[in-house]
Amino acid sequence: MPKRAATVPATGITLDPAGQRPMHRQLYQRLRAAILAGELAPGTRLPSTRGLATELGVSRTTTLTAYEQLRDEGYLDGQVGAGTTVAQLPGPGPALPVSGHAAPQAPPHPALSARGAAMAGDRWRLRPPDSFGAGLPAFPLGLPAVDAFPHQAWTRILARRARRSLGGLLGYQDPAGYRPLREALAGYLSMARGVRCTPDRILVVGGAQAGLDLAARLLLDPGDPAWVEDPGYYGARGALVAAGARLVPVPVDSHGLDVAAGQRREPGARLAYVTPSHQFPVGVTMSLQRRLALLAWADLTGGFVLEDDYESEYRYVGRPLPALQGLDEAGRVIYVGSFSKVLFPSLRIGYLVVPDGLMDAFTAGQRLSQIHVPALEQAVLADFLAEGHFGRHVRRMRALYAARGAALIRAIRRQTGGALEVRSAHAGLHLVGWLPTDTDDRAVAARAAEHGVQAQPLSAHALQPPSRGGLLLGYAAVPQPEIEQGVRRLTEALRQECIRR
After folding, report:
1. What value does the mean pLDDT of the chain take?
2. What is the pTM assigned to this prediction?
3. Rg of the chain over all Cα atoms, to the nearest angstrom
4. Strand 84-86 and strand 350-353: pairing?
5. Among 128, 263, 410, 440, which is most exposed with the fewest C-beta within 10 angstroms?
């Protein structure tokens, strides 16, 4: 039979001998709460430890321990055994003088810096995901086919590394990254992407977003102008805003970023952010002429080019195009890559290829922000690359994604009756479905969500209103039967939206 709970009528304190917390901790918490609530006023004399222990039916050690803790923290005055009283706690400060004016009201939200307010504003982020159908089966943007990832190979390497190498990976690591991973990356980038690099120019970061943030903070001062593709990747815009940059939207056409337009709008920009291999979100490739013009601008002005090699592994017609960085002779390009799309999103490992003269500064910046990326994951990824699993996985995924992209195009052309215009998917993990002129793509996206389809509006990725609305449809993570079903639901949403208009 459990002991009866003891009560102190003066304070309403109840102690439960069967509770999870020790009795002295329960007494401490009840007395502290009563003091803070004003139920035990300053100067109130408390019972002696012996008397309170008798009243509560507990040992004197329990009351003594609780009193000593409260005295040490400043809630009680006096020496134990010589009379104990409640201490005078510090107040909130002197009251403001009374006047005929209304008292100032506290702001409704915590104050933010100008950059913090800009980052938090709707302008720099998409609407809440559920408004565009987050979690729906089709068509999620930026999600690879994680079910097709070689889990067994990864798990085997992880277990082996944990058994053999964990002890050496538990301490602080090189801020630039795990050396064998940087060596494997240098070989891969040189052969597959045409990037000019050595392991000493590679910095391992916590995903592409961390790399963009680090580069922006190290290269830009508040107020510096920066070119951004428009429409373009909102995560890059957010990183630039966080660094205090003044964004200069530069239009994108069928040849990529319009360098001449950027020069007209802001010739002295400090940095240009581009996705030349596969522009996000419209999917065009920057022409050689534009690439050379961009590099010439950077060389002439002393600006930098932040090259995000977005989804470069997934090109389905011909070979993947070499990186812009491989054309750079003047050391003006910082190359950004990641494994989030090519392997799986929760693997927060990306990398920067940095010009020689900036590597020390970037390593120091990494040391002061992330310190380093988790070492065990780096070691597993290094083995995954070195043992050939990565190359085999990319080849399998190219075939899978090419088939899913083609299936999506066929379904749209067959079912939508021309209400959605799509072009061949030569690369990437999504395509743009172009809507009729003057159609509100946000309204269509919201209607699609009501029908169980996730389709992000193109305008949500633009700083200036696009000339034509569109829907971004990710197909990489959608099996072909669900592609057909998703297009049927999307077609019904388009029909209803057209009727409403």
Report:
1. 87
2. 0.77
3. 31
4. unpaired
5. 128
- Cite the DSSP H helix spans in 124-256: 151-164, 166-169, 179-193, 208-219, 234-242
What is the residue range of 432's domain? Answer: 392-500
CATH number for 420:
3.90.1150.10
Assess contact for 228 and 237: CB atoms under 8 A.
yes
Helices (H), 194-349: 208-219, 234-242, 259-265, 288-301
- 373, 372, 368, 328: which is closest to 218 by C-alpha? 368
pLDDT, average across residues 90-100: 50
Instruction: Match 């490739």 to its residue by tokens.
Output: 285
Mean pLDDT of 142-157: 94
Q: According to the model, what pLDDT value does residue 83 have?
A: 79
In this prediction, residues 271-285 reach a mean pLDDT of: 94
pLDDT value of position 84 = 87
pLDDT at 92 over 60: no
Residue 390, pLDDT above cutoff 70: yes
Q: In 272-388, where does DSSP find H-type helix?
A: 288-301, 359-369, 375-386
Read off the tokens for 478. 């959608």
Same domain, 370 and 406: no
Tokens coding 279: 């522009």
Tokens at residue 199, please?
């392991």
What is the rounded distance in angstroms from the CA atom of residue 425 to the CA atom of residue 68? 72
Only one residue has tokens 């085997």, namely 156
